[in-house]
Amino acid sequence: MKTVFLLFDSLNKRMLSSYNKEVNYTPNFDRLAKKSITFDNHYIGSMPCMPARRDMQSGRLSFLHRSWGPLEPFDNSFPEILRNNKIYSHLITDHYHYFEDGGASYHNRFYSWDFIRGQESDPWKAMVQPPLDKFKEKFHKSQLNILDRESGRYRYAVNSEFIKEEKDFPSVKCFNSALNFLQTNKNADDWFLQLETFDPHEPFFAPERFREKIKTKYRGPRLDWPQYERVTESDEEVQELKANYIALIALCDHLLGNVLDYFDQNNLWDDTALILTTDHGFMLGEHDWWAKVVTPFFQEIAHIPFWAYDPRKPKEVNKKSDVLAQTIDLGPTILDYFDIPSTEDMQGKAIFDFVEDDIAIRKASLYGVMGGQVNVTDGQYVY
After folding, report:
1. DSSP string covering 129-148, please?
2. Full-prediction pTM beyond 0.85?
3. Which residue from 17, 198, 210, 259 could staple onto 119, CB 3.0 to 4.6 Å apart?
């Protein structure tokens, strides 16, 4: 039994053609949909990044009692449970929050891990005297405080000086590492691979070939990092930010295609589960808001994509499911695939059983953020 779990950050379902027929730039997400079950009623749990990952690993909601923070010693982490049951677990990620204060003890629940540097505000490259005048010309005035060395946007400007070619992009390196893992271990049994990239999280920075076909009227300096607030930008600036996000989606689609090609060429569909989802969505000007957390949790944030392929049921493909699933179901589903029972404190359910029998997982899903809004949905209405 083998599993590849693909986790993107801030992946918007309305920007994917298998969820939105008006989109025509995600052919590989379409390929995945034809090889899997597409879940139309999948929701977030705890917001944002690390709380969502705690939900995934522990199989229970955390936002009602804790905000951003590490896994606790008492948390039952499904990668660690896999380890304890002789299933090799490996993490490949460029999500640098795992390696900051507040993100500790997630990655070391895996048997091994590969951390790719350089995303967003990762304190990666050391440049004591960066070219500040160049940064002032290169980036839009809203992009960064270049006089503040502690600013995440300052670090992004420094990091981007070392990301010149497509091969330099952290997400590209992540997927290359994953292909190396598959090549080394494709004939082995009993392993779980979590392949995770920060993309398409802001800043929306993609190789030029993914942006060159998307034209806007914007003619100013680089603008790829929206603010966490209401939309105040001009129409041209809004379109530029959206175009850069779409370019990053196109990169993610291309990288997914490389994994699907490997599955096709090496018959991994015969014995390897493939699951893909995200931690939450992202506002791109809808309802006059950018980003997440500071906004109300509209459907663009809360209603997220999810695909799952189960090699034990190879005919259960190219189908849609309306079962009400959410982030906390991930861990129990993967444990169940390896015939390992969930722990008593896990609130999530193994979704494959419910899909097969076409019965409801739950009557309602609860989601929200610590110290902020709490939401409940039955899959049709949200309170």
Report:
1. S--HHHHHHHB-TTT--TT-
2. yes
3. 198
